[in-house]
């Protein structure tokens, strides 16, 4: 970005992928710095199917105020402290190629792309790990979208949050057979946004403390070992159990929070039926703060898992709204697409 004239417009365009947690982040111990109550781990999905594309630009010819345009619509950023935490006097244009705020990690890809675009614009030397500290303040899960493959967000111990950042546990190339099928049960905005839902859980659920303090730390070590060993049955069992524990703490919140619906539960039953029918674990479901399912499986079981899920859920399920599927070809690293 060589400075030639004061009329110049400086621009940086980048994309960021969606990540889907297999060990869920749910709960903040510090809402200002956005520090989590527990570590989490996710798989970064291919940008071919789901990604945010963001351009950051600045120029002396722009009006003094910052602007953010998401999917063609101007956004109110002055009232959003979390956006301003990642902001400078800039013009940002961002576009998701998937439903926004429907429990498909749009805030993760969105804030990761924003931070990366701004860092690129100013040619900042920070590594993805360092940038994850900034992205975390926009949306917690965003810190995991700055890297590819299998990414852990360590809760950290320091009060200032400087050690609460994301790191790559294994690159996508470590386990190239991994696939994810996204079932868009509903593209509607979720009833209870994650930020609000998780604090209701922190403040009211009796199950919450056990999950955060003893269940998740053990699961983090176990799933990292399963990833290193490419042990799909182990990876799958931990993934499904953690999704279930997370949704159990939502149900245990007061008032209770329901993210899964009848179609989600049909997907859970179907995955267990497939695994029982073949006598081994070949598929794993996980649900974020919404009814949409993500099903992980290995390429060799693609016909069995993706084929069966599409045929059975698509054809027979009453209440199937979305009726479309994203078959992610691969799990790849992020970057400018
Ligand atoms: C269920 O990252 O959206 O998807 O930090 O308040 O923006 P904020 O929350 P957010 O929460 C994601 C919750 C989750 C689990 C996960 O992605 O780990």
What does this structure look like?
The structure is a single chain. It contains eight helices and 15 strands. The chain has 337 residues and is an alpha+beta fold. The protein has a five-stranded mixed sheet. Strands 2-5-10-11 form a four-stranded antiparallel sheet. Strands 13-14-12-15 form a four-stranded antiparallel sheet. The longest helix is centred in the middle third of the chain and has 23 residues. The radius of gyration is 20 Å and the shape is globular. The two termini are 20 Å apart. The C terminus is likely disordered. Bound molecules: ligand DP6. The site of ligand DP6 has 14 residues, from helix 4. Keywords: ATP-binding, Lipid biosynthesis, Lipid metabolism, Lyase, Nucleotide-binding, Steroid biosynthesis, Steroid metabolism, Sterol biosynthesis, Sterol metabolism.
């Amino acid at each position: 970005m060589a400075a030639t004239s004061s009329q110049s417009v400086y621009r940086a365009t980048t994309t960021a992928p969606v990540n889907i947690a297999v060990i869920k982040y749910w709960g903040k111990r510090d809402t200002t710095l956005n520090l989590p109550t527990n570590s989490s781990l996710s798989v970064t999905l291919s940008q071919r199917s789901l990604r945010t594309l963001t351009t950051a630009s600045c120029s002396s010819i722009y009006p003094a105020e910052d602007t953010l345009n998401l999917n063609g619509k101007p956004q109110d950023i002055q009232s959003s402290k979390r956006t301003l935490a990642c902001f400078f006097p800039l013009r940002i244009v961002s576009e998701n190629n998937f439903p926004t705020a429907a429990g498909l990690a749009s805030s993760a890809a969105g804030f990761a792309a924003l931070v990366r675009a701004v860092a690129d614009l100013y040619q900042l030397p920070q590594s993805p790990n360092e940038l994850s500290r900034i992205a975390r303040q926009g949306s917690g899960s965003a810190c995991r979208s700055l890297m590819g493959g299998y990414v852990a967000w360590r809760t950290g111990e320091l009060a200032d949050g400087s050690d609460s950042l994301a790191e790559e546990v294994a690159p996508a190339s470590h386990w190239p057979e991994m696939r994810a099928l996204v079932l868009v049960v509903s593209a509607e905005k979720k009833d209870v946004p994650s930020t609000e839902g998780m604090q209701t859980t922190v403040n009211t659920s009796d199950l919450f403390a056990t999950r955060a303090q003893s269940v998740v730390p053990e699961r983090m070590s176990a799933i990292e070992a399963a990833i290193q060993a490419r042990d799909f049955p182990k990876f799958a069992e931990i993934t499904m159990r953690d999704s279930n524990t997370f949704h159990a703490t939502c149900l245990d919140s007061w008032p209770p929070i329901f993210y899964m619906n009848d179609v989600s539960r049909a997907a859970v039953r179907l995955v267990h039926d497939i695994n029982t029918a073949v006598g081994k674990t070949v598929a794993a479901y996980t649900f974020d703060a919404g009814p949409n399912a993500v099903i992980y499986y290995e390429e060799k079981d693609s016909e069995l898992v993706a084929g069966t899920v599409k045929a059975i859920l698509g054809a027979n399920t009453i209440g199937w709204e979305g009726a479309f599927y994203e078959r992610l070809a691969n799990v790849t690293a992020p970057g400018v697409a």
